[in-house]
Design goal:
It contains ten helices and eight strands. With 252 residues, the chain is of the alpha/beta class. Helix 6 crosses helix 10. The chain is elongated.
């Protein structure tokens, strides 16, 4: 979860943390009932767990200490490069906030020990972002089937957008150059024109006013999605067969 970037021992973190809490009027003791540092002021109890790196083991340990008190912190050495460290530990910090566990950075430089409370164990506001919530629902509904494998990496995902582009490409491959209106009549959807104009994958080209064709790149890329090509080509063939069986103007 986070790489170890310092050579400090866990015991090196104890004195600065102890002095910091003592200065705030707490009685501080180390190694109390398996807790690294415990600070008490009246009925107020703070537990601080010390580790050389911010990792899953430390987070689990801190979560266990919440059985003792709500005021639990984890303390790790202050990194030399905060920007890189914040980027590397962004996920871990988010988990700490969700678990309502505080985070302390400790500098142990000779003669200048310092404690910096990055955040306190405050109640976490679990608010869903409505835009993301809607986007996830829309993405699920706009995919006709599950063409991806969960957990896969380094492979092109079939998003709803890509699936629509593949359907358009299949139509152009089978029928030749077409207008967006004719493509929509084949079921390519309301976003057909924007997909053709945007041409994100360089699959399409405009060959005349309002008419688009499949590029050589698009034709080549279709081979990477045999399951989808078979599906959409099958829909086209079914549609053509239906039209042949029911001529215009025939009695029902």
């Amino acid at each position: 979860m986070a790489s170890r970037s310092t050579s400090e021992r866990e015991t090196d973190l104890c004195a600065p943390v102890r002095d910091y809490l003592t200065a705030q009027g707490y009685t501080v003791r180390s190694e109390v009932h398996n807790c690294d540092v415990v600070a008490v002021k009246g009925e107020d109890v703070i537990v601080v767990e010390l580790k050389r790196a911010l990792n899953l083991a430390l987070i689990v340990q801190a979560a266990e200490r919440q059985r003792i008190t709500d005021s639990v912190y984890v303390a790790v050495p202050r990194p030399s490069n905060m920007r890189v460290w914040n980027r590397q530990t962004k996920g871990a910090q988010h988990i700490l906030r969700r678990l309502e566990i505080g985070l302390v950075l400790v500098s142990t430089r000779a003669g200048r020990p310092a404690v910096d409370v990055l955040f306190h164990p405050l109640p976490f506001q679990r608010q869903k972002r409505k835009s993301r919530h809607r986007a996830v629902i829309s993405e699920v509904h706009n995919r006709t089937a599950d063409f991806n494998e969960g957990g896969s990496c380094r492979r092109k995902l079939v998003t709803a957008y890509r699936e629509s582009a593949i359907r358009i490409a299949c139509c152009l491959c089978e029928r030749g150059p077409m207008s967006p209106k004719d493509l929509r009549a084949l079921g390519t959807g309301d976003k057909t024109l924007s997909i053709l104009r945007g041409n994100v994958y360089s699959w399409f080209e405009r060959v005349s006013h309002g008419v688009y064709a499949l590029t050589s790149t698009g034709a080549k890329e279709l081979s990477a999605y045999p399951e989808l090509v078979e599906h959409y080509t099958g829909l086209l063939l079914t549609s053509e067969a239906s039209c042949r069986e029911t001529p215009p103007g025939s009695a029902p």
